[in-house]
Amino acid sequence: MNSSGTTRPLVSIVIPSFNHERYLAAAIDSVLAQDYPHVELIVIDDGSTDRSAEVLRRYGTRFHWEVQANQGQVATQNRGWLMSRGEILAYLSADDVLLPQAVTRSVSCLRSNPDAVLSYCDFNLIDPNGRFIRRIRTPDFSYRDMVVKMICPPGPGAFFRRSAFEKTGLWDDGLRTMLDYDYWLRLGLQGRFVRIAEVLALYRVHPGQETFSRMNERMSEEPVRVVSRLFDSPALPRELLAFKGEALSNAHLSSAQLHLRGRRYGLGMRSLRQAFQLCPRNLFTWRMVRLSVNVLFNRTIHRALWRINSVLHR
After folding, report:
1. 11-17 and 132-136 as β-strands: parallel, antiparallel, unpaired?
2. Is the entire prediction scored with pTM above 0.85?
3. What are the φ/ψ torsions at residue 285 (nearest 5 degrees)?
4. Nearest to 147 by CA among 221, 223, 259
5. Which residues contact 4 (CB under 8 A, 6 or more apart)?
6. Same domain? 81 vs 127
7. Residues 122-154: pLDDT tens digits?
8. pLDDT, tens only, 156-178
9. pLDDT digits over 241-253, tens only?
10. How far does Cα 42 stand from its chain's mean position?
11. Residue 181 sits in the same domain as residue 223
12. β-pairing, 116-126 with 192-204?
């Protein structure tokens, strides 16, 4: 019970982990350090080949953890959520960190907005050694922008209601790279998201993460598959149907970016052509500029920042 006599809801946080021995303890410790008293932590190691299991054994029985044969990220995350008991749910990547007040502020936000199904926050990018890179100021929520412009605000530090989770269902085990975007699109059909304009989490940028790997052809086509499927759903608000062409154009731009990163230049150019056929004005937008910069310089910029940070902190 809190000071007002109301019961604090149980919050369940799931950490799926695969070969994150270097960062796993920081993620776990950040959950154990929360100033909110009712947190259920579930950590599932998905058959790691490094020493992640040794990291978990050091915690004994302080929270529920287990090691399973490798099943993949989706199956691991879904299993964790199905094991959980909380009224409010969250997941934390094994290389990310929550700040100590993250759960308290998120629970308070959801309580203050009973019609909202999810809260999300600003977060800081950190380098592989945990040093600050820059702050990400997330935009205010617009379901239309999430669908049409693929602006997906929730990042680390997102918390959502079990009631909405039960209506939405599990992560799609047919996806590999657009998992969270697809899930937030489906969850957003249950109600609005609310932004907390504070930094409550840290997102670690490092060479081993999916963001810095080259997607294969099927994975690179996922943006188009996800958006196309949403527009086929009878649950989509009818007022968004008029924006199907623009939405698919932006999805093809995202696929083009992934193909070009993977050096599949022919497929990348095909996706660009499809994008501009669907919405010609996309050729003259900041999104196109950002896509070009991301393809050409994203990894170079982050690695340069890591080197600068290393020099400054010697």
Report:
1. unpaired
2. yes
3. -120, 165
4. 223
5. none
6. yes
7. 999 999 999 999 999 999 999 999 999 999 999
8. 999 999 999 999 999 999 998 89
9. 999 999 999 999 9
10. 18
11. no
12. parallel
